[in-house]
Design goal:
The protein is of the alpha+beta class and 70 residues long. The chain has one helix and three strands. It has a three-stranded antiparallel beta sheet with strand order 1-2-3.
Length: 70
């Protein structure tokens, strides 16, 4: 899928690392969501559909991606 990222307004979490090592998110046309590495703003971006993004953020909130405890 090709999505035009020209004019996308990227933002970081307010909890991001002050050194700039974080990801940025942009809400795009047609409800799509872009995610990119803040250290490489001209690199590629992951593009999610609204449903994929909702599923991902729900998983994060529910702890689905937490590291296993030893």
């Amino acid at each position: 899928m090709t999505v035009d990222l020209t004019g996308a307004e990227w933002f970081k979490s307010s909890r991001s690392n002050p050194d700039g090592d974080c990801v940025e998110v942009a809400f795009l046309a047609n409800g799509m969501i872009g995610v990119r590495d803040s250290k490489n703003p001209n690199g590629s971006a992951l593009i999610f559909t609204p449903n994929e993004w909702d599923t991902f953020t729900t998983g994060v909130t529910d702890g689905e991606f937490n590291r296993p405890q030893p």
